[in-house]
Design brief:
Helix content: 25-40%
Radius of gyration: 23 Å
Shape: globular
Strand order of the largest sheet: 13-10-12-11-15-16-14
CATH architecture of the domain at 445-574: 2-Layer Sandwich
Oligomer: single chain
Number of helices: 23
Bound molecules: flavin-adenine dinucleotide, D-malate, zinc ion
Largest sheet: 7 strands, antiparallel
Mean pLDDT: 86
Distance between the termini: 70 Å
Structural class: alpha+beta
Low-confidence stretches: 1-86
C-alpha cells in the first residue's frame, strides 16, 4: 500500500490507513468480481458485434487503466447479451397493452413490401427484421417499455440517414432513433410499430485536433470507446456515466446526459461545439463547427441537445475534450447524517476547489442493494450515508496535500465517521462500482420506479424520507443517491412487480413535491415516454407551446420519436 505518504494528520492516518489496509483484500476481490461479471453494460445484438470488433476485449482493456476506470472487461458477455435479451424481454409487457388508452395514431403509414424493398436496396445487409434482434431494440434498459417494431435500419453515413428519413417522411412512417438503448425514460424504444433507426454502425472517429482537444466523430461511437481512444492522446471525454460501455455519444447528446463529471466539466451544452443532424424530411443540417466561439445567429446545435430524437437525428458531433488528469484520488467516506454530507461537501469545495472532479452521495439503502444483490463489499462500516469524493489534477503532491487538509477538517469536525481512500486505478474503479451499480442492483429485486430530480440542497434528501414513509411496506425499499454536487437526486422505489397502489402513491406526489420546492422533474434522464405528460410541473404552458411550435416546424408530420417528450404530438395526415 503506498498510502502512508498521503495522510499526515494523525487522526487521518489512524482511521484511514487502518481502514485501507484492512480492506486491501476486499478491494482486490471487488475488482475481480467486477471483471468477471461486467453485467451492467447492456450490449444489444446491435452493439455487440461492433463493440467486439472494435477490439474492446482483454488486450485493449489493459490500456484503460490511465484514468478512473478499468473497462467492463466482459462487456461482450454481459447478462444483457443478444441471446439472453430475447428470453428476458419477452417477459416485458408491451407498452400498448400496459397503456391501452394510448392509441396508435392511424395517420402513420404501415410498413409494406415496397418499403422493405426500398430499404434493402438502400442498406444492403443492414435491414433487420429478425425477431430476436428486434426484441432487444424494442425493449428498454429498465425492462418497463416494449414496442412492436418490425424493422430496424442501420445506416453508416449521414447521406443514408437523410435518404431513410426523406422516404419515411414521404410515407408518413414513424421512426425511433436509437443509440445504445440505455435511456431510462422509455424514449429509445418504439411505443407501437415505429421503425428503429439505429446509429450503431455510425462509429467512425472523424478527426482529433490534439492541440485543442477537439474531437469530431460520428454519433454512434460508444462513449467508452471514445474515452479509450482519447486516453492514448492524454485527453478524456468531458462526460462519464455508468452506461459508458453501451451508450453512444449521439444518445448522450440527445438526452443531454449529465453523469459523474458534470460537476467539474459542466454540461454537454457547454462542451459540444458542433452537431450535424438530419431533419425529418431528410435535410442535412451541418452545424459541425469546431470553433469555441461562433456567435452567428441562433445556436441551432442546442436544439438537438436534449431533444431526445424528436427534432432530428444527430449524425456527427464535435466536442471539446479536457486534458487527462495526471493524478486521481478517490475518498469513500461515511457520514452519520444528511447534514454532515452537506457540511462535508462545503468543506470539500473550500479545500479541494479546482481539483474536485466528483462529489456523489448514496444512502445506506443504496449500499444494501449493491452489497446484497451484487455481492460487492462495503469497505466501511454501516453508515446512514456514503460520499464519493474524486479529485483530478496535474500534480499528485499538491492534490494529496489538498485532499489531506480536507480530510483533516471533516474528521476533526466529525462530519465524517469512517472512510477509505484510493489512488490506484483498480481500487478507484472498485470503489466507484459501489456507486455506479446501484441502478442495476435494484433491478435484481424486481421493478424500479425511477425519479431523477433536481432540488435545492437544503431539501434534497427530505423527499426520500417522505416517500419512504408514504410507501411503507408497499415496497421493498426506497433508495436515494445522486450527483449531490449538481443538486441531482435519484429517488427510486423498488417493488417486486408493477403495482398500481405503488404507482398511485408515487405519482403525482413526487412531481408535486418537486415543483413545490422549485425543482426539475427531470434533471438528466429526459422525459422520453414515461414523463412527457408531467412536463408542466417544470415548464410553463407558454414554454411547452413554443416547444410544440418548434416540433411542428421541424417535423410537421411528427414522424420522429412520436409519443415522446412533448405531451401531444399529432402527425399531419398521410400524403
Ligand atoms: P438511447 O438510450 O438509445 O436513446 C436515448 C434517447 O435519445 C432516445 O430518445 C433516442 O430516441 C434518442 N437518440 C439516441 N441516439 C440519437 C441520435 N443519434 N439522434 C437523435 N436522437 C437519438 N444518464 C445521465 O444523464 N447521467 C448518468 O449518470 C447516467 N447513468 C446511467 C447509468 C446506467 C447504468 C444507465 C443504464 C443509464 C444511465 N443514464 C445516465 C441514462 C442516459 O440517458 C443514457 O445512458 C445515455 O445518455 C443514453 O445514450 P444511448 O446511446 O444509450 O441512447
Ligand atoms: C446514475 O447516476 O447512476 C444514473 O443517472 C442512473 C440512475 O438513475 O441510477
Ligand atoms: Zn445520474
Amino acid at each position: 500500500m503506498q498510502m502512508s505518504h498521503v495522510f499526515h494528520h494523525p487522526l487521518c492516518c489512524k482511521l484511514l490507513l487502518s481502514r485501507f489496509a484492512k480492506n486491501a483484500p476486499i478491494l482486490s476481490s471487488l475488482t475481480n468480481c467486477v471483471s468477471q461479471q461486467a453485467y451492467r453494460h447492456r450490449i444489444h445484438s446491435s452493439a455487440l458485434p461492433q463493440f467486439c470488433q472494435k477490439g474492446a476485449s482483454a488486450s485493449l482493456l489493459s490500456t484503460l487503466h490511465g484514468h478512473r476506470y478499468v473497462s467492463p472487461i466482459n462487456s461482450c458477455t454481459t447478462r444483457h447479451n443478444s441471446n439472453e435479451a430475447s428470453s428476458d424481454t419477452h417477459k416485458v409487457q408491451l407498452t400498448s397493452e400496459r397503456f391501452p388508452q394510448l392509441k396508435r395514431n392511424d395517420s402513420y403509414g404501415r410498413l409494406n413490401e415496397a418499403d422493405i424493398e426500398y430499404f434493402v436496396k438502400l442498406l444492403p445487409g443492414r435491414v433487420v427484421s429478425d425477431e430476436d434482434e428486434l426484441e432487444g431494440a424494442n425493449t428498454d434498459w429498465m425492462y418497463l417499455a416494449r414496442g412492436s417494431s418490425k424493422l430496424m435500419l442501420k445506416p453508416k453515413t449521414t447521406q443514408e440517414v437523410s435518404e431513410i428519413l426523406a422516404y419515411c417522411n414521404s410515407r408518413c412512417l414513424a421512426v425511433t432513433p436509437q443509440g445504445g438503448n440505455t435511456g431510462l425514460v422509455g424514449g429509445s424504444v418504439p411505443v407501437f410499430d415505429e421503425i428503429v433507426l439505429s446509429t450503431s454502425l455510425m462509429n467512425d472517429i472523424i478527426h482529433l485536433d490534439k492541440a485543442s482537444g477537439i474531437l469530431v466523430c460520428q454519433a454512434g461511437c460508444i462513449l467508452e470507446s471514445l474515452s479509450t481512444y482519447l486516453e492514448d492522446h492524454d485527453l478524456i471525454m468531458p462526460l462519464d456515466l455508468g452506461a459508458k460501455g453501451s451508450c453512444q455519444i449521439g444518445g448522450n447528446i440527445s438526452t443531454n446526459a449529465g453523469g459523474l463529471r458534470l460537476l467539474r466539466y459542466g454540461s454537454l451544452r457547454g462542451n459540444v461545439l458542433g452537431i450535424e443532424a438530419v431533419l425529418a424530411d431528410g435535410t442535412i443540417i451541418d452545424c459541425l463547427s469546431t470553433l469555441r466561439k461562433d456567435n452567428t445567429g441562433y445556436d441551432l446545435k442546442n436544439l438537438f441537445i436534449g431533444s431526445e430524437g424528436t427534432l432530428g437525428v444527430v449524425t456527427a458531433v464535435s466536442i471539446q475534450c479536457p486534458p487527462k488528469p495526471k493524478a486521481v484520488n478517490l475518498a469513500f467516506l461515511g457520514c452519520s447524517s444528511y447534514e454532515n454530507v452537506l457540511a462535508t461537501y462545503s468543506e470539500c469545495k473550500n479545500n479541494c476547489a479546482e481539483i474536485l472532479s466528483a462529489f456523489e452521495m448514496m444512502d445506506l439503502q443504496s449500499m444494501k442493494f449493491v452489497t446484497t444483490n451484487l455481492g460487492l463489499s462495503n469497505p466501511l462500516g454501516e453508515c446512514p450515508f456514503y460520499v464519493v469524493v474524486e479529485t483530478s489534477g496535474s500534480d499528485a503532491q499538491h492534490d494529496e496535500e489538498k485532499l489531506n487538509k480536507f480530510l483533516e477538517v471533516v474528521m476533526e469536525q466529525q462530519y465524517v465517521m469512517d472512510g477509505t481512500i484510493a489512488t490506484e486505478p483498480s481500487k478507484i474503479y472498485a470503489l466507484w462500482q459501489l456507486r455506479e451499480r446501484i441502478n442495476e442492483s435494484m433491478m435484481k429485486s424486481g421493478v424500479v420506479y425511477k425519479y431523477d430530480i433536481s432540488l435545492p440542497l437544503d431539501v434534497y434528501y427530505d423527499v426520500v424520507i417522505e416517500t419512504r414513509q408514504r410507501l411503507g411496506d408497499n415496497v421493498l425499499g426506497v433508495v436515494g443517491y445522486g450527483h449531490i454536487g449538481d443538486g441531482n437526486l435519484h429517488l427510486n422505489a423498488v417493488a417486486p412487480t408493477l403495482n398500481k397502489t405503488v404507482s398511485d402513491l408515487l405519482e403525482p406526489f413526487v412531481y408535486e413535491w418537486t415543483a413545490k420546492h422549485k425543482g426539475s422533474i427531470s434533471a438528466e434522464h429526459g422525459l422520453g415516454f414515461n414523463k412527457r405528460n408531467y412536463i408542466y410541473y417544470s415548464k410553463s404552458d407558454a414554454a411547452v407551446e413554443l416547444m410544440a411550435l418548434m416540433k411542428a416546424k421541424m417535423d410537421p408530420k411528427c414522424i420522429l420519436n412520436p409519443y415522446k417528450t412533448i405531451p401531444v404530438c399529432k402527425p399531419a395526415s398521410k400524403q
